[in-house]
Amino acid sequence: MRRLTGLLVLSMTFGGLAVGAERQSPAQAGFEKLKTLAGSWEGKKTDGRPVNVSYKLVSAGSALMETIGPGVEPEMVTVYHQDGGRLLLTHYCAAQNQPRMTSTPSAGEIRELTFSFLDATNLAGPNAGHMHKVVLTFDDGNHITQQWTWREKGQEKVETFRLARKN
Predict the structure, then answer these.
(1) Per the domain annotation, does 147 fall within a domain?
(2) Residues 95/129, Cβ–Cβ less than 8 Å
(3) 97, exposed or middle or buried, with CB in 10 Å at 0-12, 13-18, 19+?
(4) Which of left, alpha, beta for 19 (phi over 0: left; psi -120 to 50: alpha)?
(5) Distance (Å, rounded) from C-alpha 161 to C-alpha 41?
(6) Domain tally for the chain?
(7) CA 38 to CA 158: how far, in whole Å?
(8) Neighbours of 65 (CB within 10 A)
(9) Which of 36, 87, 128, 129 is 20 to 30 A from residue 98's alpha carbon, by CA?
(10) What is the pLDDT of residues 91-126, one digit of tens each?
């Protein structure tokens, strides 16, 4: 009887885990999709200049660190992580400010994540230049597109990176 009870408890526990894995929240699914970016990427910017981007899981897999460059511009780092029902990023910019952006993925297959400005540290004022929006498009397992929107004095400029996986 004890053995049967033990097997029943184990079966309920593992069965519950399997059901839980199937019912990921959109934020969990979005972060899992971000994790697939781990590795090195290369591509071109809007103006045709080369760009190198690397992604590394850090903090026991709870954050994804993106490094852009070095290259034509100074190296920049962006850290992505889940925050309850949303995703957050902090971009450590060459402009020496740190915008934070949030994304609330929709249910279903994640093909695109749009991060919108939440706030920033070290920003001189609302009209000071800063990254204001990032759109990540998962073209396929080996190709992504990033659109970075810079906002300054109410004007926006979009820089597009088309990237292919190196490894």
Answers:
(1) yes
(2) yes
(3) middle
(4) alpha
(5) 11
(6) 1
(7) 24
(8) 17
(9) 36
(10) 999 999 999 999 999 889 999 999 999 999 999 998
Q: Return the residue matching tokens 């490094």.
A: 67
**Residue type, position 57, single letter:** L
Q: pTM of the predicted model, to two decimals?
A: 0.85
Boundaries of domain holding 155: 24-165
Instruction: List the beta bridge partners of residue 42.
Output: 52, 164
Antiparallel, parallel or unpaired: β 86-92 and 143-152? unpaired
What CATH number should be reported for the domain holding residue 105? 2.40.128.20
Q: CA–CA separation, 22 vs 39, rounded Å?
A: 26
C-alpha span between 79 and 101 (Å, rounded): 10
Any domain includes 8: no
Helices (H), the chain: 2-22, 26-35
3 domain residue, yes or no = no
pLDDT score of 3: 56
In this structure, what token pair is assigned to residue 98? 């740190």
111 in a structural domain:
yes
What radius of gyration, in Å, describes the C-alpha atoms of the chain?
19
pLDDT of residue 2: 56
